[in-house]
């Protein structure tokens, strides 16, 4: 009797498990036309004009990712401002990119009074391999990323100025 019950259960499981699966045809992908695709720049200046790092080819670029809520970001800005002044005649551009709204960036700039070039980052930090702020990248004159610094640093120290000057 037990054997019949067991055989019945196994047969029922096999029959139920072997139901015909409904196969659906793959739907064709909707083709995007150029007019439907919205082109966005990676960065914008605080007036909303699109900019790209390639716009600065031929210059050395210090690109700092920051946020208005990031204490280490704000604490290093006075030293970055000094470093910017020290390197003013050495073909350097200092850019400060935040993914926050232009309105927040402008309000921050006005309230803090920093003389820095703040820009809006329209991308995703993870795509830039940024997992914590501040993160600073240094690009050479060819537009190649040559240095990376994570965390708040003393940017106007003689050692840091020499590192930045050494970038060609």
General description of the model:
The chain is α/β, with parallel strands linked by helices. Helix content is 31%, strand content 20%. The chain contains 4 helices and 7 strands, in the order H-E-E-E-H-E-H-E-E-E-H. The chain has helices at residues 2-17, 71-86, 102-112, 158-166, and strands spanning 43-45, 50-51, 60-65, 92-98, 117-121, 135-139, 145-150. It has a 7-stranded mixed beta sheet, with helices on one face. The chain is globular and about 90 Å long.
Extended strand count: 7
Order of helices and strands: HEEEHEHEEEH
- Mean pLDDT equals 84
Strand order across the largest sheet: 2-1-5-4-3-6-7
| Beginning-to-end CA distance, first to last residue | 87 Å
> How many individual helices?
4
Could you provide a short overview of the structure?
This protein is of the alpha/beta class and 168 residues long. It is built from four helices and seven strands.
Q: How do the strands and helices of this protein lay out in sequence?
A:
Blueprint: H1 2-17, E1 43-45, E2 50-51, E3 60-65, H2 71-86, E4 92-98, H3 102-112, E5 117-121, E6 135-139, E7 145-150, H4 158-166
Parallel strand pairs: 3-4, 4-5
Antiparallel strand pairs: 1-2, 1-5, 3-6, 6-7
List its salient traits.
alpha/beta, 4 helices, 168 residues, 31% helix
């Amino acid at each position: 009797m037990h054997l019949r019950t067991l055989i019945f259960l196994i047969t029922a499981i096999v029959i139920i498990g072997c139901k015909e699966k409904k196969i659906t045809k793959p739907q064709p992908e909707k083709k995007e036309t150029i007019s439907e695709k919205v082109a966005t720049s990676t960065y914008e200046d605080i007036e909303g004009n699109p900019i790209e790092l390639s716009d600065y080819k031929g210059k050395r670029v210090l690109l700092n990712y920051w946020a208005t809520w990031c204490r280490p970001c704000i604490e290093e800005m006075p030293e970055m401002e000094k470093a910017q002044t020290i390197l003013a005649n050495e073909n350097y551009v200092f850019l400060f990119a935040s993914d926050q709204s232009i309105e927040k960036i402008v309000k921050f700039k006005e309230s803090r009074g920093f003389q820095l070039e703040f820009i809006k980052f329209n991308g995703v930090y993870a795509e830039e391999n940024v997992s914590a702020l501040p993160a600073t990248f240094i690009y050479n004159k060819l537009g190649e990323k040559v240095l990376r610094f994570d965390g708040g640093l003393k940017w106007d120290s003689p050692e840091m100025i020499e590192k930045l000057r050494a970038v060609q």
